[in-house]
Amino acid sequence: MRATVKFQLRQFYVSKDGKQSLALRYLVNRKSTYIGLGISIYPKHWDKNALMVRKGNPLSYQFNKIIREVHQRATSLIMDNYNNPLPIPKFRELLFEKTENHTDFYDFITQELEFLKTDRREGTIKNYKKLINTMKVWKPTLSFSEITLDFIQAFHRHEVESGNMLSTVYKKHANFKFLIGVAIDKELISKNPYDKFEIKKKIKAKNNDVLTEEEIEKLYKVYESNTYTKGKQTVLRNFLFACYTGLSYAEYNVVTYADIKRYTIDKHECFLLCNERYKNNMPYQIPIVSDKVKALLGSGKNFQKIFSMLSNQPTNRYLKKIMQEQGINKHMTFHRARHSFKTITAQRGILEKFAERMMGHTEGNDIKDIYTHLQDEDLIREILTKWIA
């Protein structure tokens, strides 16, 4: 009997935000196995007839590339062994077998980092790993042959369009250049594409990177007046919430009303939004103490998502139009809301460790934070006394 393969969403592998795991089902001799692809999507984004992720998913291009490659590899294995179908263990082994031409750069560098621990600082190794994890979100697989000047330029555009400051982007370039150098030393890459790409050492800070409190207040009044409808109003609501709380773009599709704790501090009804950052799995705790921010939060049942989000490009497109229409002459992307939040907390004198914990940065989430309830109250009081916007 000829073996067959089929892509399926696994109904019993559902994340808390409703995403399902996509797997390849291999059937041979009346036995089957499911092979995960590391792809989780909402059912509405899966086109089972076309065997592809719909464009509504922001990573559809990258996911579909993986699906095509796996399907091509699986089909080839079936045809090469048409008369004697491969048993399940052998099929699994050959499906992901790596040759020199197919070795994934991420896998290679992850192994190399273990050796680099002996002569590199722990913080440096963490930065390398953080970079790789960030790149995987944008491009889940990366072969050596794909690391070209065009790829470097595409990575640069992606980082800038995501709202990262140029100084941050060039730091990532410097780290990536070093990692490529490791592959060159192993003769897995012949030329370093950074030979033709300038990594700028110093980037002058720009005032248009952040909003002032007065500008945020102006935008809030626009939101309250319902000047905008549908897409623009949704983007403005989400953006303002990020300005007041530092919530990252990636977290908006995850948080539900079940993630909110309620406290009464000094006769004030206060909320604390608690979850983990998608980017680094670090916990964050966001006090919500003012009526303005509570209004942006809204209300709903525990299982309901707090926010609805547009994909990154239309979000930033709407923000650009809103800024122009409101006479705010600043180049603003959604990520700049976090920059604005961090700047205002510093101006308000909010302790760095609390600001870091709110933003989900590693520095503000020391493992020594054992007494959670006490620290929750401390964090809420810090915002109550210094910034009840």
How does this structure look, described?
This protein has 389 residues and is α+β, with helices and mostly antiparallel strands. 45% of the residues lie in helices and 14% in strands. It is built from 13 helices and eight strands. It has helices at 60-80, 88-95, 105-116, 122-138, 149-161, 166-185, 213-224, 230-245, 291-297, 312-325, 336-347, 352-359, 372-386, and strands at residues 4-14, 20-28, 31-41, 46-47, 52-53, 260-265, 268-276, 283-288. The protein has a three-stranded antiparallel beta sheet. Strands 6-7-8 form a three-stranded antiparallel beta sheet. A two-stranded antiparallel ribbon has the order 4-5. Helix 8 (230-245) packs across helix 10. The termini are far apart. Mean pLDDT is 85; it is low at 366-374.
Proportion of β residues? 5-15%
Strand element count: 8
* Spatial arrangement of strands, main beta sheet: 1-2-3
Q: Helix-strand pattern, N to C?
A: EEEEEHHHHHHHHEEEHHHHH
Average pLDDT taken over every residue: 85
Give the N-to-C terminal Cα separation.
69 Å
In the CATH hierarchy, what is the class of the largest domain?
A: Mainly Alpha
Domains (count): 3
- Second rung of CATH, namely the architecture of the largest domain: Orthogonal Bundle
Low-confidence segments: 366-374
Superfamily at the CATH H level of the largest domain?
Answer: Intergrase catalytic core
Shape: globular
Largest sheet: 3 strands, antiparallel
A few lines on this structure:
By secondary structure, this protein is an alpha+beta fold. The protein has helices spanning 60-80, 88-95, 105-116, 122-138, 149-161, 166-185, 213-224, 230-245, 291-297, 312-325, 336-347, 352-359, 372-386, and strands spanning 4-14, 20-28, 31-41, 46-47, 52-53, 260-265, 268-276, 283-288. It contains 13 helices and eight strands.
